[in-house]
Structure formats: structure tokens, C-alpha cells
Design a protein that fits this description.
Blueprint: H1 3-14, H2 18-35, H3 38-47, H4 50-53, H5 68-79, H6 83-100, H7 103-111
Helix pairs in contact: 1-2, 1-6, 2-5, 2-6, 3-7, 5-6
Pfam families: DUF2267
InterPro entries: DUF2267 (IPR018727), DUF2267_sf (IPR038282)
């Protein structure tokens, strides 16, 4: 998946135009980098299109511990949108990340997040009509 395809997929899922989809993608990936370890962020970045990799770069190795509400607020603030749009973006971009990277890598990301984040993570197979239960 190239950058344009990634941003277009995230935009379709969030229901926003391409220009806004790129800003929301950037904001979500930057916030994800804040929330996960530096090593995990690098592993995810390595599987994303080159144009998106810098959004997952972080200076500190340790993740910042913050909840889902703060995650959505950070995305909203970074992208200049309201929290409803920010929430839709988080769901859309994380679903697109899940599609773009290996399943085991995505599970490694999820393992670093509290259970409340499962609310914005699409279960495996939902897009093709098959639901799989979570732990």
C-alpha cells in the first residue's frame, strides 16, 4: 500500500476529503507514537509507506501513559477538528494501519494499549463480515 492509497483508505473510513484525511492520518500516527514504545513505533513505521514513517518517530523510548479520551483529544488538537471527527479519524487510521502491517505487528501495538482502546480498534474480519472475539 502506498501513501496515497493509505490516506485514501483512511479518508473513506472516516468520511472526510483527501486533504483532511492526510492531516488526520498524521495526527493519529504522531499520537500513536506518543502512546507506544519507541521500538514498537519503529517496527510499525518500517511497514508503512515511506512518506508516513516520520510521523511515528519519537525522541523518547518509553510510551506516555494516557487513556483513550486523551488520545482522541490529542488527535483532534493536532488536526484542528472536533472530538467527534477525531474519534472517527482514530478508528479509520487504526483500521488502515491494521490493513497495512502484518497481523502480528498490529497485535503487538494493541498489547501496549489499555483495554479501553479496543473500543476504537476494528475486530479482525469485520470488513469481510467475519467477527473474531478478543481475548
Amino acid at each position: 500500500m502506498n501513501c496515497a492509497e493509505f490516506v485514501a483508505a483512511a479518508g473513506r473510513r472516516a468520511g472526510v476529503p483527501p486533504e483532511q484525511a492526510h492531516a488526520l492520518t498524521r495526527a493519529t500516527l504522531e499520537t500513536l507514537a506518543d502512546r507506544i514504545s519507541g521500538g514498537q513505533a519503529r517496527e510499525v513505521a518500517a511497514q508503512l509507506p515511506p512518506e508516513l514513517r516520520d510521523y511515528l518517530r519519537k525522541e523518547q523510548e518509553f510510551p506516555e501513559p494516557f487513556g483513550l479520551g486523551q488520545f482522541i483529544r490529542r488527535v483532534s488538537d493536532r488536526a484542528g477538528v472536533n472530538t467527534a471527527q477525531g474519534s472517527a479519524a482514530v478508528r479509520a487510521v487504526l483500521a488502515t494501519v491494521r490493513q497495512a502491517i502484518t497481523g502480528t505487528e498490529f497485535e503487538d501495538v494493541v498489547s501496549q494499549l489499555p483495554k479501553e482502546y479496543w473500543e476504537v480498534i476494528t475486530p479482525v474480519g469485520v470488513e469481510v463480515g467475519v467477527r473474531r472475539g478478543r481475548r
